[in-house]
Amino acid sequence: MPVNSGRASAVLFDLAALGAGLLLPLAFAPFGWYPLAVVSPALLFLSWGGAGARRALLRGWLYGVGCFGFGIFWIHESFQYNQIGLWLALPLTALLTAGLALYPALLGLLVVRLPRGGVASRMLLVFPAGWVLIEWLRGWLFTGFGWLDLGYSQIDAPLGGLFPIGGVYAVSYAVALSAGALAWALHGLRRDRVVGLVAVALLWWGAAWLGARQWTEPAGAVLSVALVQGNVPQSRKWLPSMRAVTLKRYRDLSDRASGAALTVWPETALPGFKRQFNAYLADLGRRVRQRGGDLLLGLLTRRVGDGRPLNSVLLVGRDRGLYHKRHLVPFGEYLPLASLLGPIVRVLGIPVADLSPGPDRQRLLEVGGWPIGVSVCYEIAFGEEIRATLPAAAMLVTVSNDAWFGTSIGPYQHLQIARARARESGRWLLRATNTGLTAIVAPDGRIVARAPQFEAAVLSGSATPMRGATPYVLAGDWPVIVLALAMLLAGALMGRSAVRR
User: Fold this and answer.
1) DSSP for residue 330
2) Are 373 and 390 a contacting pair, CB within 8 Å?
3) CB-based contacts of 209: which residues, under 8 Å, 6+ apart?
């Protein structure tokens, strides 16, 4: 083959990797084209087939640029709400995208550096296992960022039945394995490869069968609930002139749901510190107690001792208590590597909040005698952290303020992630947000009710306290991670054996 022809072919594969990355976000909410979660990685796997280390690294990075550049472009809106101009918000988003793209680039380098065996061992062992391990790495390194993990795209698909078995990484593994089988088959539909596709079809059928199983059961009577969506514009939320309007709006909306056993307001529904609202909270508590219910609401508090600010959820009514957000958003709620990045941030004029994380161990709040697992915004993206409240928690409640992401696809992805937590745990999940998407989610991940986005609303419904534990609640992520490591090792050993022959 002429040199120029070889270079042109290589560039086409580079562009194919970029295009495959652009396809992947379409598998997630709000689009929901979940089969693309199989097609997209399969195309990437094929592009790595005969690539050297440098080309595999480049194609993995291009794939990541396409995937994250499209899939999380909405983050630039949050920068702008944080008083960062578009001239800086776009480069910061591009920098984040380029950084996240290093994960699939690292995977590309890994799979071509391992001893190469046959196509089957690479496609069915090395690539799927490596994919899951890279997702897991991205889920905790630098505090973690689990957005666009393959598994989340399958919440309404047959493979979603694996959520209560092994969590999101088990679903990701099944998707990546399906992608590997597809890529293997595209090398040429021989009999053994057809058998591989049949095996994958059986995997999908088995996952769907498992998804129909009930792992948990009702622990008590149904509770009436009301989720209040204040729809306070993010650009005006913290203005002193808006405070009285906000307080009245939430109180009036809550009065419309006076019969609810549990009412939930979103993250920082009260725009300030708890001590600034003492009289309002005292009156609110009396009103809630008279109705015989409980109210959860988001606000800021200060840490005992040093007075550092905390992002908290307050329980008032028949019971009282506080939950403090533990997993903060890097750059949004605190500055990581402050000694190194602080001078750069100050020069660029980037405002960064200085919140403190709550303690790792916190007593579960109780509503009507039922313990509940509370999480704030970003925390719902971390299955192991939600799992830490289980099986004690009879219900999950998450509060958020997705007004930061405007009219983008970000809130839809966030709700999809929350639905995965409900399905992993076998618990009802209540999600209250400022502008949407406020929803009541059943233990199987179904959205039972949802408030209209960008409207002040009260979402009334019911939820049932649950007991019992799914296999995921009992074992967590480690069984899948150990399996992935074992499959990666098996693929490497098979590759070494093939090289020696």
Assistant:
1) B
2) yes
3) 161
**248 an active-site residue?**
no
CATH number for 218-469: choose from 3.40.720.10, 3.60.110.10, 3.30.420.40, 3.30.390.10. Answer: 3.60.110.10
252: tokens are 């009036």
> Which of 135, 267, 333, 379 does the annotation list as catalytic?
267
DSSP state of 438: -
Which of 77, 377, 379, 424 is catalytic? The answer is 377
pTM for the structure as a whole: 0.95
Residues of the chain with CATH 3.60.110.10: 218-469
Query: Does 325 qualify as catalytic in the annotation?
Result: yes
Residue 379 known to be catalytic: no
- pLDDT given for residue 83 in this prediction: 66
- H helices within 291-408, ranges in order? 338-348, 383-387
Q: Which of 145, 166, 143, 144 is nearest to 154 (CA)?
A: 166
CB of 226 closer than 8 Å to CB of 460: yes
Alpha carbon distances (Å) from 366 to 293, 307, 323, 400: 12, 26, 11, 20
Tens digits of residue pLDDT in 483-501: 999 999 999 888 777 655 5
